[in-house]
Design a protein that fits this description.
28% of the residues lie in helices and 18% in strands. With 597 residues, the protein is of the alpha/beta class.
């Protein structure tokens, strides 16, 4: 999951009471339509049935296969241990793309292939990194290379210096003082005792909070975007100083995790120095490492006490071209209903990861759960009415690139602003500039289901403000409550690939999962490894998702949709009302506004 993860936004739902469901013996009624041509109404726009036709026999068969004969941990070990970290553009992610394609084909899926979503940037792989102090004492530090860091070209040593840069004026203090130095960049944070568990499960109180309706939207993410822009601008000027000064390298402290999880040797290694450091034009000018906070703290305190410190370090990293492309893994179980087989139910998660661990909980978990869903359905020889399609995306960590690219090629996209100030920002930060541009296959997707919140079991589903799904999903989860699936919330959740589908009007859902130690210890860290996967939770998640996918594939109608989004109108709709206050005088137009007059 991307580090950008906005707070849970928008509304929760007072759930409808579960209504009686029809048995598998009830016959399907012909209320289907898969065409929007010639005035035919797509089935998601037709009135939805009050009662869902649920196949309880299939519920039981999926549960037996998913819980009693799970192979999810075998997939996990092969992916995490056998292939390892999967940084987009690296040889490992290429290996993972090919391995997932071949595994899906081997289990009997059709049309297993890789799709090119476009140019990414530089391929990079960390081969070896070590950092140690050689004076005034010797010490071996816990550190790894920042992704896309240049190599040191062998071991090098130099005096350490800490820089305190909060604003542009601070840069002047270090001119002429950084040549040949190893620069510590970042404040030393307080390391508090661990007085809360790093591993947590949501109780009824927390689930009730998630299902509760926030009356006002939270604005944390908006502030994050503003702060991000300011930090990026200052960092670019700092990089220019490092280049001009011929500094040797940069050492950064690891950030903290939830409940103080960023201690005890845990490193969150998900940032470089600068913006889009995977692009040749933004390559880091000096080698850079992220260091465990305890290691960083020792050097920091010595320097603050005016004790000279010498550091020796080696980064052995390899680049693989400047214009590497990214690929998604796609495979299907073909639909069998002549009227519905061209409609699609999708599921997936992102295959790429960061480089310090093996990408187990983020998002090897979502990958192997999705693969296990397909295995379960193939093992049961399910004959879905609609086609079931899996998508395993890459480039998610840098901006949902894989899923956005796939959606753009097949279903539609939102044009982004090309204003000069906007072009300076990463794509995921740029403002929309026009209405949706949709493709003919957009109406053919009933839903997309995503898993990307760690290794925890599924507790429910975020409706992404799609209120019409509530009575449907409420009936679906009634037979799953003994597995812990109890909560449906109208809230949005962000930072992962379901957003790419939701953005073009396709129902896209992220499951609500038990938190475990995802935000405290494993998300983007060197502890994101196989040992932090929970076998029972992953088997439950695959079982639950398989039932959701099966139900979606077998309904007479596609799932209902929200109204098409109009992101280009968001600023206009949120702008203050004009001519509201009695007696108010018109303000003088700003300089930019005068130019447009």
């Amino acid at each position: 999951m991307m580090l950008r993860k906005p707070s849970l936004l928008i509304v929760a739902l007072l759930l409808l009471l579960a209504v009686p469901v029809l048995t598998a013996a009830d016959k399907h009624k012909d209320k289907t339509s898969s065409s929007t041509a010639d005035g035919v109404v797509p089935s998601y726009e037709l009135p939805q049935p009050a009662k869902e036709s649920l196949d309880y026999t299939m519920y039981q068969r999926i549960r037996e296969e998913g819980l009693g004969h799970s192979h999810v941990m075998e997939y996990a070990s092969a992916l995490m241990d056998g292939i390892g970290p999967r940084l987009t553009g690296s040889p490992n992610v290429k290996h993972a793309n090919e391995w997932t394609r071949d595994q899906l084909a081997a289990m009997g899926c059709t049309n297993a292939h890789l799709e090119d979503w476009g140019e990414f940037g530089m391929g990079w792989q960390q081969l070896n990194t070590w950092v140690r102090m050689v004076s005034p004492d010797t010490a071996v530090f816990i550190a790894q290379a920042s992704p896309w860091s240049p190599s040191t070209n062998g071991a090098m040593s130099g005096p350490a210096v800490w820089v305190d840069i909060k604003k542009e004026e601070d840069l002047d203090k270090y001119k002429g003082k950084l040549a040949g130095k190893i620069v510590l960049y970042g404040d030393m944070r307080e390391v508090k005792p661990l007085d809360k568990p790093l591993f947590e499960r949501d109780d009824d109180k927390e689930l009730a909070r998630i299902a509760e309706h926030p009356l006002t939207p939270e604005r944390e993410y908006e502030q994050y975007l503003k702060d991000f822009s300011k930090r990026t601008e200052l960092t670019q000027k700092f990089l220019a100083l490092l280049t001009a000064e011929h500094a040797l390298a940069v050492v950064m402290p690891s950030r903290d995790g939830k409940n103080g999880g960023g201690s005890g040797g845990t490193i969150f290694d998900d940032r470089g120095i600068g913006r889009e450091t995977y692009k040749k034009e933004h390559i880091m000018p000096v080698p850079a490492v992220v260091m465990a906070i305890e290691s960083y703290g020792r050097v920091y305190r010595l320097l603050k006490a005016n004790v000279p410190v010498t550091i020796e370090m080696n980064i052995d990293a390899k680049f693989f071209g400047d214009h590497e492309h990214g690929f998604d893994t796609i495979a299907e179980i073909e639909g069998t209903d002549p009227k519905l087989k061209d409609e699609v139910v999708m599921l997936g998660g992102h295959l790429d990861s960061w480089a310090s661990g093996t990408g187990a909980t983020d998002n090897g978990a979502g990958t192997v759960v999705s693969m296990e869903v397909m295995r379960i359905l193939r093992a049961l020889d399910v004959k879905p009415r609609r086609t079931i399609r899996i998508g395993l995306w890459t480039g998610e960590e840098q901006g949902l690139f894989g899923s956005i690219g796939y959606v753009k090629q097949h279903f539609g996209h939102v044009p982004l602003s090309t204003a000069p100030d906007q072009l300076k920002l990463p794509e995921w930060m740029r403002k929309p500039a026009g209405p949706l541009e949709l493709k003919p296959d957009q109406p053919k997707v009933s839903a997309y289901y995503n898993v990307d919140n760690g290794s925890g079991k599924i507790l429910g589903v975020y409706l992404q403000e799609n209120a019409s799904e509530a009575p449907i999903f409420q009936q679906w989860i009634e037979p799953l409550k003994d597995l812990g699936v109890t909560t449906i919330t109208m809230r949005n959740t962000g930072g992962t690939d379901h957003e790419s589908f939701d953005a073009v009007g396709i129902p896209g859902f992220q499951f609500l999962q038990d938190p475990l130690d995802y935000s405290s210890r494993t998300h983007h860290s060197n502890q994101d490894v196989y040992e932090h996967l929970q076998a029972g939770d992953l088997a439950q998640a695959a079982t639950v998702e398989a039932i959701f996918v099966y139900n979606t594939a077998m309904r007479d109608q596609m799932l209902p949709r929200k109204a098409l989004p109009h992101p280009e109108l968001e600023e206009q709709r949120s702008a203050p009302l004009k001519h509201l206050m009695p007696g108010a005088e018109e303000p003088e137009p700003k300089a930019e506004e005068k130019k447009q007059m």
